[in-house]
Amino acid sequence: MTLSVRRAAEARGAAPALVFDSETLTWDEVHRALPAIEREQAALTLVAGRDRATILSIFAAIDARLPFAPLHPRATPDELVAMRAVLSSLSDLSGVPDVPDVPDVQAGGDASDEAPLAYVFTSGSTGAPRAAILSRRAFIASARASADNLAYGPGDRWLLAMPLSHVGGLSVLTRTLMAGATAVVTPEGPMSAEELVRRMAHAEVTYASLVPAMLTRVLRAGLEAPPGLRAVLIGGAPATRALLAGAREAGWPVLPTYGSTETCSQVATRATGDVLDTDGRIGRPLPGVDLRIEDGEIYVRGPMLFDGYIGATSSPEVSGFDDDGYFATGDLGDLDAEGVLWVRGRRSELIITGGENVYPAAVEAVLSAHPEVVEACVYGLPDADWGEVVAAVYRSATGPIPDLDDWLRERLAPHRRPKRLSCVNHLAELPKTSSGKVDRAALRRRALEGSEPDGSEDGEP
Questions:
Q1: Which helix (H) or strand (E) covers residue 18, if one does?
Q2: Within 13 A of 3's CA, how many CA atoms are on the CB side?
Q3: Model confidence pTM above 0.85
Q4: 420, burial (CB in 10 Å: exposed 0-12, middle 13-18, buried 19+)
Q5: Which helix (H) or strand (E) holds 250?
Q6: Can you give the pLDDT at residue 1?
Q7: Which residues pair with 292 in a beta bridge?
Q8: Domain termination site, one of 292, 324, 346
Q9: Side-chain half-sphere CA neighbours of 207 within 13 A
Q10: Sequence-ordered alpha helix ranges (H) in 65-192
């Protein structure tokens, strides 16, 4: 297994590599169609839709050993400007941190595999964009661990329905490339559950990666799994016991996973045939992954870990690494006597909605920038379809703001816009903690109890 289009073309030339709506490309055809890449740039930056040109450009960058930065196709112009500003520091090598050595990262690899392959954006604790540095070594180790666990290889077909700006979508490309397998690519834009399953059946998909929201829509539509489907990895947000049990009853071979951008996708996954569905129960660590629990928090070490963030220092407070090379995930969990990982929740205030990460502070900053908003608070609320939805409460001197939805639509990507938007009485302040900060927990608790602020209104669905 190697991360090279040229090698895949040599080994699997006539085999299908990419299946689109209108065409299927073999590995030979992919290799011949790779665009020329300007090697002098620090990184290839591209708005990463699931289209032919973008995927070929990513493959070209991989073979040219040029790092690339896939940006979210639904990001607003302001968000794209902020991400490009982060990437501008690549011209200054001080923006790339040193991190503790990870044992055995070179085993079976090449020194050049330590070079960055991709800069994948995630959000820091303030909601400001930051790019995780993922090396070739990380993607190679992740793909090998996944293949060892799932036993996929040439001849398998993996559904690509997740954003390429996320490591979950990007990893479908690197896994199929290394295995000489096939990526079945769905187009950008909304898609019904019926259409998704029809495409899977028509393309004879054997593996798929879905977020719980996608699986929920499929089950609500009463759709059975297409024949030949061997495994569906569920990640990006917690999957409930009820969802997993319902999926199995409908014949969907679901496997809960745990991972993040910083771990280059999954580091723990349910074993095939394990049908013990319990809230929070994931599975054993993948080959090459070390897990430990410290003060209830999950720590990860292994060759698939990222190498820090662009612009961050190597101090544990910033990078998340300790002196032994373990990364503090910020997630709470434990390991049982059989070595199975259980994930209990998040230590941070991160909202995960439909597999998308949203930090409250970033949305609050946009809300508070409206000239009529006095103060604002954002939090997540549980939702059967999306796992969580973004909710917000604001106070205005004049009461509800009629054009606030339009204001947010221009400045926030759809997954970051509040689905539930409330305005309190202009004479009432938002509740505060003893330190004078807005009491996010109290507002969320009120919403869960059904105690709405005066003047509440529904946001954009």
A1: strand 16-19
A2: 29
A3: no
A4: buried
A5: none
A6: 66
A7: 299
A8: 346
A9: 26
A10: 77-87, 136-150, 167-179
Phi then psi for residue 377, to 5 deg, are -145, 135
Angle ∠(326,329,330) on CA atoms, nearest 5:
135
Q: Which residues constitute the domain of residue 212? A: 5-346
Q: What is the pLDDT of residue 415?
A: 93
Average pLDDT over every residue of 180-198: 95
- The answer to whether 252 and 225 have CB atoms below 8 angstroms apart is yes
In terms of Cβ atoms closer than 10 Å to its own Cβ (0-12, 13-18, 19+), residue 290 is middle
Closest CA to 272 of 286, 255, 257: 255
- Per the CB < 8 A criterion, the answer to whether 347 and 330 are in contact is yes
pLDDT top residue among 69 and 461: 69
Do residues 55 and 23 share a domain?
yes
| 182 touches 29 (CB < 8 A) | no
Q: Give the residue from 315, 346, 377 where a domain finishes.
A: 346
pLDDT tens column, 367-380: 988 988 888 999 99
For residues 372 and 301, give the distance between their C-alpha atoms in angstroms, rounded to a whole number: 47
Q: CB atoms < 10 A from the CB of 325, how many? A: 18
Q: How confident is the model at residue 455 (pLDDT cuts 50, 70, 90)?
A: very low
CATH of the domain at 81: 3.40.50.12780
| Same-domain pairing of 179 and 211 | yes
CATH of the domain at 403: 3.30.300.30
Q: What is the pLDDT of residues 21-49, one digit of tens each?
A: 999 999 999 999 999 988 778 899 999 99
Alpha carbon dihedral 432, 435, 441, 447, in 10-degree steps, equals: 0
Q: What is the mean pLDDT of residues 454-458?
A: 44
Report d(CA 213, CA 433) in Å as an integer.
34
For 250-262, write each residue's pLDDT tens digit: 999 999 999 999 9
Whether residues 325 and 429 share a domain: the answer is: no
Residue 448, SS3?
helix
What's the structural domain count of the chain? 2
Residues 167 and 151 in one domain: yes
- Asked if 324 and 358 sit in the same domain, the reply is no
User: Average pLDDT in the 314-334 region?
Assistant: 79
Nearest by Cα to 258 from 300, 293, 217: 300
Q: Sign of the CA dihedral 205, 385, 459, 440?
A: negative
